[in-house]
């Protein structure tokens, strides 16, 4: 049996705004669930409009379950004093498909690199603590192709194994896209491979 995890943690919805203050500087923290890098830009642009007089909009994001991609952005703060501390919190909460942004209003007193690291880390931590974190399964998708006459045996397996139907196209030739938890994928693939006149392909 495969022991690779087939669940991951992410956010159910965007977090409420949180505020952390340090020596007159204000740090507003936000966390958002995301499914693509394009969404990062949208959230940042909206926060720049909302906080147009802020000094820095620092952030980090992580995407993916088996293959991870991430980015950390200091947005003008000293190198690695903002983006990486924010990313560190994403890692310590063990979540993915998430964007965390900390918006800073400068309060007139310099915090130094150490002060910035702890303030950005705290802003990110508060945003994630205020979020509802949920567990989701890592799913594998398959396309099943078959003739109409084989519909019953295909549907029987789908029902018995409790598979999700993502989409279906029923013409003279039928095609159904199904998804199943990663840990069951090999077994499901084997079942459909052994069905006469049924073709299965991983997407």
What does it look like?
The structure is a single chain. With 203 residues, the protein is of the alpha+beta class. The chain folds into two domains: 129 residues, Impact, N-terminal domain (Ribosomal Protein S5, domain 2, 2-Layer Sandwich), CATH 3.30.230; 65 residues, Alpha-Beta Plaits, CATH 3.30.70. Helix content is 30%, strand content 37%. It is built from five helices and eleven strands. Strands 2-3-6-4-5 form a five-stranded antiparallel beta sheet, sandwiched between helices. It has a four-stranded antiparallel beta sheet with strand order 9-10-8-11, covered by helices on one side. Strand 2 and strand 3 form a beta hairpin. Helix 2 packs parallel to helix 3. It is elongated, with a radius of gyration of 23 Å. 32% of the residues are buried. The mean pLDDT is 94.
């Amino acid at each position: 049996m495969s022991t690779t995890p087939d669940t991951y943690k992410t956010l159910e919805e965007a977090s409420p705004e949180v505020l952390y203050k340090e020596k007159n500087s204000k740090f507003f923290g936000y966390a958002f669930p995301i499914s693509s890098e394009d969404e990062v830009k949208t959230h940042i642009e909206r926060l720049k409009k909302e906080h147009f007089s802020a000094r820095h909009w620092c952030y980090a994001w992580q995407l993916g379950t088996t293959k991870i991609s991430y980015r950390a952005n200091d947005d003008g703060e000293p190198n690695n004093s903002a983006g990486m501390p924010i990313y560190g919190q994403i890692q310590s909460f063990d979540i993915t498909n998430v964007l965390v942004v900390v918006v800073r209003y400068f309060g007139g007193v310099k915090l130094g690199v150490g002060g910035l690291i702890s303030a950005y880390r705290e802003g990110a931590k508060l945003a994630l603590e205020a979020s509802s974190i949920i567990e989701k399964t890592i799913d594998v998708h398959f396309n099943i192709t078959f003739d109409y006459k084989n519909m019953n045996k295909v549907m029987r397996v789908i029902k018995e194994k409790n598979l999700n139907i993502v989409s279906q196209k029923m013409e003279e030739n039928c095609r159904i896209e199904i998804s199943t938890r990663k840990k069951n994928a090999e077994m499901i693939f084997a079942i459909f491979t052994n069905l006469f006149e049924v073709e299965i392909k991983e997407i």
